[in-house]
Structures are given as C-alpha cells and as structure tokens.
C-alpha cells in the first residue's frame, strides 16, 4: 500500500473552482481576513508578553492560543489564496497534502486542549480562589500547554500514518480547499474502515470530551456567580468568562458540525463553508472578541499605544 501511494503523482484540490463567479471576491475577503488575523493575534502575543498586568495564567493560555491561531491560518490560507488566484483546480503533492493535514491536526487538537485549560483556569479562579495559586502554578500552566501540544502531535501522527498508507486512485480529486481528514479519507479505494474508527474516536475524545469538560466547568462557575450577593460582582465575574465562552462556541460549534454530521447528510459546499469559517474567520474573531469584551486587554492595549505615541 505504501508503494502504491508513493507512485501517486499528486492530489488535485478542487477548492472553489466550481464557483468561478465568487473566486475573485472571495480572494480579497480571505486576504483581508488573513491580514487582520495576523495583526490581531500578533497584538495579543505582544500585549500578554509586554504588559505586567497580563502576566496571569489566563493570558498565558491566551498567548499560546494566539500562537496556535497564527500557525493554523498560515498552514491553510496562503495555499488557499494561491488556488483562488489561479481560478483552476490546483495540484498538491502527496507529501505536501500529508504535511498540511499533519500540521492542521496538531494545531486543531492543541486548540481544543488549550480552550479546555482556559475553562479550568476560570473554574479555579472563581470556584476555588483560595487554592488558585496552587492549582494554576507556573509549573501547572506549562504542563497543560505542553500536554496540549503533545496530544496534537500524537493524534496527528496516528491519523496521518493510518490515512496516508491507504491505497488511493491514480488521480484523486479532493472536493475541498485543504487536505482535511474526511475528504481525503473518503478518496481511499480500500481499507479505510480502521481509519474511520480512528477519526471517530479522536472526534469523541478531542471534541466532545473537551466540550463536555468546558460546559461542566461553566455550570459550576454559573452556580458560583448566582451565589454572589451583589449584582455588580456577578456582572464583573461573568465578564471575565464571556469572551472565552464565545470563542468556545464558535470553534466547537463549527468543528462538531463538520466532523460529527453523517456523511450522507453532508454537502461539499456546506463542508467548505464550515471549514472556511473555523480555519479563516474564527482565528480573526478571537483577538477581536478578547480585545473588545475584556477590559484588561483593552486597557493594556490603550496603555501600550499611549506609551508608544506619547513616550515619557
């Protein structure tokens, strides 16, 4: 099987070539979104590193989330822009497709785990404030981030090994703009049952379980918020969680629909739109959400701009 795969000349990415009228406008929209994503996430990384007021576990995780978002979009968007500019389906080598999928999985799984760690941080801060410094020590935070990356690497290695040792047709056409797991797996001519089981297992473990843990954390947080006597205190505590909660629903909502919906009930166009949302749009929205809805980040940004424009 490996030998057959090695003789494959290349995959063909259909991209959006069947929607010719939209390719021009879509190119400029994706380019603009990508530039905003680079600027926004770079700003979050800079702020959380340079501002002493943001040297807390929550912003430590946020900084790593922004790093993931930068790498995530850079793995997908430049190739997508080149395909949109060409107006034709473009070839991608077997090795190039495998590499893109590998990086895509590493970063996607890492993001799931990081969002879960951020939920646990909020739970510890609100529900276990007396033990917060122990639960969220520097060593614990580093261990959580390292584990997130490790889970991504293990999952990507397993999936890539299973998928890219399968036999494929001589000229496989991927009805997508990236080498995503399910579109590539469905092209395999035989022996894909084991890989499908692996994908479903990873979906449950790294999408549904983290989402369940996040929801559980916020149920406990909601109980703690409702126990507060002051309305102002409730509003202040909830404001620290709302940004993360919104990001969670944006990311897990689109990914769960993409990977859990039945194959018979899915359409190529719907899958591409959903993938475009969580690979391009969501990484742009995350820094905007954290900047606009988080007073500490917004305050640190104003302070940094003031310091640069009006130096002491």
Topology, please?
Blueprint: H1 2-6, E1 11-13, H2 20-50, H3 57-86, E2 90-92, H4 94-127, H5 132-135, H6 138-163, E3 173-174, H7 181-185, H8 193-226, H9 231-260, H10 268-293, H11 295-309
Parallel strand pairs: 1-3
Antiparallel strand pairs: 1-2
User: Fraction of residues in helices?
Assistant: over 70%
Output the helix-strand order: HEHHEHHHEHHHHH
Instruction: Identify low-pLDDT runs.
Output: 1-6
Total of helices: 11
Strand order of the largest sheet: 2-1-3
Strand tally:
3
What does the average pLDDT come to? Answer: 83
- Oligomeric state of the chains present here: single chain
What distance lies between the first and last C-alpha atoms, to the nearest angstrom? Answer: 67 Å
Name the overall outline: globular
Class from helix and strand fractions: mainly alpha
How large, in whole angstroms, is the Cα Rg? 21 Å
Tell me what portion of residues adopts beta-strand conformation.
under 5%
Largest sheet: 3 strands, mixed
Throw out a few tags for this protein.
312 residues; three-stranded mixed sheet; 3% strand; disordered N terminus
